[in-house]
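sorry for the late reply, my laptop died twice this morning and i had to redo everyting from scratch. anyway the thing you sent over, i finally got around to it. pasting the sequence first so we're on the same page, its 171 residues, then the predicted structure underneath. double check i copied it right bc i was rushing
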Amino acid sequence: MSLPQKLLVDTNVWIDYFLERNPENHEKAMRFVAAATAAGAALYTSSATMPDLFFLLCQETKRCLRARGKVVDEGMAAAVRESAWSSMRSIMELSMVVPVGRNEALRALTYRDLHDDFGDDLILAAAARVDADYLVTSDKALMRHAPVACLCPADMIVLLRARAQASEEAE
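ok and here's the structure:
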């Protein structure tokens, strides 16, 4: 029996999972999390992304509401924040949070020549910390420069299904 896949989920995948700003990306993220859960994969989230996730969930939700002609008053803003808090609780239920500290920050600095984005480099360092099998991201530039294996949510679904099928055939 093989060990579960260790998958570090990037910020953009979580944003797509919770928000329908792009229905196609939202659907892919939802299917990815469902497939990973069904396959028994271990999902991870970098602690460095948690504040960004909360902020982006609030900002993107307000932007979407305004784009639909809604007024974001104090009451609506409070509801948006509550929704973001709920999303953070869901992330913590669905994944293990990888602590990012000094060692990961130092490692992120070494990735600068590969991918000159400190936030992304911290995610790469978190993936290295847990020895993740894959970083699941929709960030094409990060995928090109990452020193770890990366797949987009749709490709990860295909891999998880193929692995499940191979496991069934081996039994």
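DSSP finds eight helices and five strands in the chain.
thats about all i looked at so far, will dig more tmrw
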